[in-house]
From TrEMBL:
Domain Plant heme peroxidase family profile: 44-320
Protein name as annotated: Peroxidase
Textual note on the cofactor: Binds 2 calcium ions per subunit.
Coiled coil: none
Co-factor(s): Ca(2+); heme b
UniProt-listed InterPro entries: Ccp1-like (IPR044831), Haem_peroxidase (IPR002016), Haem_peroxidase_sf (IPR010255), Ligninase (IPR001621), Ligninase_C (IPR024589), Peroxidases_AS (IPR019794), Peroxidases_heam-ligand_BS (IPR019793)
Species name: Roridomyces roridus
Length: 364
């Protein structure tokens, strides 16, 4: 049988493609310093979100939308971070730029690599693949490439399709909101989780977005926010509508209590998203560490305490919502996600701040 060629890196690991050796020092720095003690918390969430906002700057038909996963969101931060849809991405900029400056991989590769490593911090994620070799942007993406939470399902799906992502891909990608929350949708409250388990990649997000909305974690009337079903949880209008639209409701519900389906479809759609607009990439999947497995206690979806099937707004017309058991005890209010101390960079988010991206672009 043919023996696959392998390379031994200076750092000691063995990989199929020698080019991937460049990632080990970056991996070590990300693990030890950038994420430090963050186990699928605020820093991991920030690194995951920015990977989407960079990659989605791409269109199959309009070259002016950019070259996708090309680092433009940091390289042209002084422009892209002023777009409303990118509010809060300054956190990822401040988190990552000091580390980007220390390494010689492309900014585009760093953003997607950091997101891939962020996923390996989250129990329940399937081993993510990783491709390397993205070419950095020559120009900013224009405003309007990133979907907004106040848009209609049709608008969001059309934008995603224009970038090459189907409705099924979109629902699959939104499993990311199982390990996520919002800092800026409610102007007074940060770290509001999208599901009751924001540090576990489980199917609770798909259960909880189907609950009848009963209240707001803080103020009402915020653009892009609708009532959620659990105290302390925030619900995006876009997630609420995607869970109920005839185009996506059955895709959405198919994730409920089906961890394997959610994890597999997310793995495939995320890999597709990470490579938008890029070609001639090298497979460096063998650099990526294994994610922690899902604890047995998180393997089965549940109705939050005090709620039942009667609180579900059934939307998929062809399949009944799965029967789940109710978590024991009295209804609880979810805690806010602890904010990472993202103070290392120097980007301020008020639209008139300084941007160390100029250093990234010209002085390296
Ligand atoms: C398709 C439509 C989508 C919309 C409208 C949307 C909207 C949002 C909004 C409004 C927030 C809250 C931001 C804040 O206030 O801090 C958020 C957070 C987040 N989103 Fe999405 N999103 C979408 C898709 C995605 C995708 C495809 C991914 C990744 C694959 C993603 C990953 C995240 C993550 C990880 C967070 C949490 C960020 C943090 O805690 O710092 N989202 N999203
Ligand atoms: Ca981009
Ligand atoms: Ca979760």
């Amino acid at each position: 049988a043919a023996v696959e060629p392998r390379a031994t890196c200076a750092t000691g690991q063995t990989v199929k493609n020698a080019a991937c050796c460049a990632l080990f020092p970056v991996l070590q720095d990300i693990q030890n310093d950038m994420f430090a003690g963050d186990t699928c918390g605020d820093a991991a969430h920030a690194a995951l979100r920015v990977a989407f906002h960079d990659a989605i700057g791409f269109s199959k038909t309009q070259s002016s939308f950019g070259t996708g996963a090309d680092g433009s969101i940091f390289l042209f931060a002084e422009q892209e971070l002023t777009y409303g849809a990118n509010l809060g991405i300054a956190d990822a900029f401040n988190l990552e730029v000091p580390f980007i400056k220390k390494h010689n991989i492309s900014v585009a590769d760093f953003i997607q690599f950091a997101a891939t490593i962020s996923l390996t911090k989250c129990p329940g994620v399937l081993q993510p693949p990783f491709m390397m070799g993205r070419v950095d942007a020559k120009a900013a993406a224009p405003d309007g490439t990133v979907p907004e939470p106040f848009q209609t399902v049709d608008t969001i799906l059309a934008r995603m399709a224009d970038a090459g992502l189907t409705a099924a891909d979109t629902v699959a990608l939104l499993a990311s909101h199982s390990i996520a929350g919002a800092d800026d949708v409610d102007p007074d409250l940060s770290g509001l989780p999208f599901d009751s388990t924001p540090s576990v990649f489980d199917t609770q997000f798909f259960v909880e977005t189907q609950l009848r909305g009963t209240g707001f974690p803080g103020s009402s009337g915020n653009q892009g926010e609708v009532a959620s079903g659990i105290a302390g949880e925030i619900r995006l209008q876009s997630d609420h509508l995607l869970a109920r639209d005839t185009a996506t409701a059955c895709l959405w519900q198919a994730n409920v209590n089906n961890q394997a389906h959610m994890a597999q479809t997310f793995q495939a759609a995320f890999a597709k998203m990470q490579n938008l607009g890029q070609k001639n990439l090298v497979d460096c999947s063998d650099v990526i560490p294994a994610p922690p497995s899902l604890p047995a206690s998180a393997a089965t979806a549940f109705f939050p305490a005090g709620l039942s099937h009667a609180d579900i707004e059934q939307a998929c017309a062809t399949t009944a919502f799965p029967n789940l058991s109710t978590a024991p005890g009295a209804a609880v209010s979810l805690p806010q996600i602890v904010q990472a101390p993202l103070t290392q960079g120097d980007c301020d988010d008020d639209g008139e701040g300084k941007f160390s991206n100029f250093f990234l672009r010209f002085a390296n």
